[in-house]
Amino acid sequence: MRRIRIVHARSAITWIWALLLITDAGRGHSQSSRTGDLLAWVDAYYADYSAMSTAPTGPAMDRWLARYAPYAFFEDPTAGQGAIGRDTIRKTYVDAFTGALGPVRWRVLRRVASGEWVAVEGWLEGTQTGKPFRTRFTTWLKILNDQIVHQVDYVEYASMRRQVAGAEPVPQVSPDSTSVHGKPDPISAMRVAGEFYQRYEAMPVLASTQGVARFTDLLADDFRLEDPTAGMAVGGRERYRATLNGLRVAGDYGVFHWDIDRRLTNGEWIAVEGTFRGIFKGKPFATRFSTWLRIRADRIAHQIDYVDYRTFRRQTATP
Length: 319
Fold this sequence. Notes:
Helices cover 41% and strands 39% of the residues. The chain is built from 9 helices and 12 strands. Strands 2-1-6-5-4-3 form a 6-stranded mixed sheet. A 6-stranded mixed sheet has the order 8-7-12-11-10-9. A hairpin with a 2-residue loop joins strand 5 (131-144) and strand 6 (147-155). The protein is globular. The two termini are 37 Å apart.
C-alpha cells in the first residue's frame, strides 16, 4: 500500500507538469507563422551545412558559420564534446572535413518547432576515409535573431564506426510513415506524454506486473520502440511488456526519473530532451537523453530514444 500512495502523491506533480506542457503547446499554436519561418530557416541551414562539408575552407564555411551567434554553444553528449564560439566551431569542422570525414548529407525524417527551439531527427550519411556510412541522429537548435545560440546533437556513432571498418553493412533508409491519424492536437499530445512519463517512473516504485501493465496500457498494439544509440528495436506492445517484466525480475534498475529540460510538439510527434537520472545495480547515474514520441488516438505508437550511454556506462561500471 505504501508504494501505491507514493505514486498517487506524485501524480499531482505530474499534472502540474502536464499543465505546463499545455501552456507550451498553446503558445506554440499562436506562433504558427513563426514556426513555418523557423522550419524554412532550418532547411536552409542543413543545405548550407552540406555545402560547407564539400568546401570547409572557403566561402561556404563562412556562409554556414554566419548562422551561429558569436557566442554559440555546441554540445554533443554522445561524443562527449562541447565548444563555445564561432572560432572554436570553425576549427572543429575544418579539422574534421579536411581530415578523414568526407562530404555529408542530412536526411531529415521529422521536425518540430515551438518558440525558439527546433528539434529534427533522421539520417546522417557520408564517407569517412573514403568508406560510406549512414547513421541516425537527432539535433536540437535554439535560434535567436536568425542565429543558433545553442545546439545539442545526438548521433549513433557506434554503427558509423562499424560501417567504416567494414564490420557492418550500410543500412538502407527505411520508409517512414508520415500519415496523420485524425487532426493533430498539441494539447492532447502533451497530456499523453505527461501520463507516459508518470507511468514510466512509477514502474520501479510499484515493482509489479501491474505497474508494467499500467505503463504498457498507454501504448498502441503495434507500438514500436527504437533506440539507435543502443542498437535496439522492439516491435509490438506485448513483446515490449515481456521485455519490461524481464528487466523488473532482473532487478538491476532502482528508482529513476526523467528530468526534462525541453519539450516540443506538432500534435503528432513530441520531442523531449533532458537528463535521465536513477539507480542501476546500486549505483547512481545521470546521463543526457533525447526522445521522440508519436501520438495516435491517445496512445504512444512509436518511441525513438537517443541516450548518452558513454556516460551511463562510466558511472555504473563495476570496479
